[in-house]
Amino acid sequence: MDKRLSILDLTTHGHQPMEFENLVLVYNGEIYNYQEIKKELEKEGYRFFSNSDSEVLLKAFHKWGKESIDRFRGMFAFAVYDKLNKKLTLCRDRVGVKPLYYYFDGKNFIFASELKAIRKYKKFEIDKISLAQFFEYGYISRDRSIFEGVKKLLPAYFLEFHLETKKINLKQYWKFKNYFNVSAKKEEDIIDELEEILIEGIKYRMVSDVDGIYFRHK
């Protein structure tokens, strides 16, 4: 059953899970620059049957693998399963706008964008350390969650799970301090650059509001 929140493409062509060759995608979020990536992929010979950013994300991953993440500008949490290599890849956006949780008991690997979905698998005990952190700080730090054994994928990380070896590989793909190096710049240049970034960011985020925003929850 498709539970996608349709914004960019209201047709059935954008429904999930979405498949292309050996890859299967489930995805929550929005890739603001998907039209630019789509044009780049079309030059590489890819054909598109929808106006959804989901299809662009899937085929970008098919073309560039994990390196495609560097091209994405937006908020996202997605999972791509490679049927050929029996490998699952999870990814979360750079600052963690979209949540993504996972649980592995040594045999079964479960992931979801909401904890209540993972709770359908089994009854979890409350993690006392996480509870104490929440009461003291108002949030739960690092990769912990309110439930024992359930972790959240950290922002700017991707996770690979190999179904045959049952091994999990975590890697950070983006770091804030490496991206923003302003020590060698003049204050005026920094202000001008910030203004350009803000204007560009607003334009990207208006991509789904060209003719009004339409929501359909199926």
Q: Any overview of this molecule?
A:
The protein is α+β, with helices and mostly antiparallel strands and 218 residues long. The protein has six helices and eleven strands. The protein has helices at 34-43, 53-64, 115-119, 128-137, 176-179, 187-205; strands spanning 5-6, 18-20, 23-31, 74-82, 87-92, 101-104, 109-112, 150-152, 157-162, 167-172, 216-217. The strands form three sheets. Strands 2-3-4-5-9-10 form a six-stranded antiparallel β-sheet, with helices on one face. The protein has a three-stranded antiparallel β-sheet with strand order 7-6-8. The chain has a two-stranded antiparallel sheet with strand order 1-11. Strand 2 and strand 3 (23-31) form a beta hairpin. Helix 1 (34-43) crosses helix 2 (53-64). It is globular. The termini are close together. Mean pLDDT is 83; it is low at 1-6 and 209-218.
